[in-house]
Please model this.
Amino acid sequence: MCGIIARIGGDDGAVDELLTGLENLEYRGYDSAGLAIKNGGGPEVFKREGKISRLKDVLADETPDGGLGIGHTRWSTHGPPTDANAHPHTDCTGDVAVVHNGIVENYDELKTDLADRGHEFESDTDTEVIPHLVKEQLADGVDPETAFRRTIEKLSGSYAVAMITDREHAVYATRRGSPLVLGVDDGDYFLASDVPAFLDFTDDVVYLDDGDVVVVEPDDYRITTPDGEAVDRSVQTVEWDPEDAGKGGYDHYMLKEIHEQPAALRQTLRGRADPATGDIRLE
Model:
């Protein structure tokens, strides 16, 4: 099960905190890991197939500064575990970087249309269509938030997405059918697939609902509906001990996995089985 982590703050501590978040998400299982840091220009991407230790080896030789970034641990769905298929994914120019959990069910159609318009792809993933779609919107002259919203409207399936661009010092994120939570600290903010990712840094959490779009900036965050209407989500304080947080509140990992089985089955069948018609589609 893939894991998302994002961090935005006022200093240059994003890399260390993103790596901590990725390590805290290791319990979800993964085959590759990566992160993208915004350090004054476009997003700088580092990613590797295999353990997070391989990613850390790369960063030990070249650690970027920056207070804003996104990270990801991937469990392969579309495409084998390779450096190229690891997240984050970017557009042709590298101006947009995206991490994504879930499945973009209509990615074949979207990818074909984008390729016909001259876009070139470097991975086998469904995720890579997202930054290319955003880039097209940006080229039309809209701001990153509008480009993000218009892109999400084109996606079918289940997803949690977080995006950064070369233009604004902000993280743009949304969820539909995949979990995403916001962590609130004094001057720092986090987004993650699960609370344990950032529990080392804050225990104040905002649980996002399906369809919520959140824009996180260094000094504030905004949550809106897909149509842009402001919504209020309360900040809750979790009482988990960081040492036990990886179990998601359960006494044992096995118990947690048992309770997750219905959701895991639904996600496995989504896009492959249509209960209304009885149709089955396997690649």
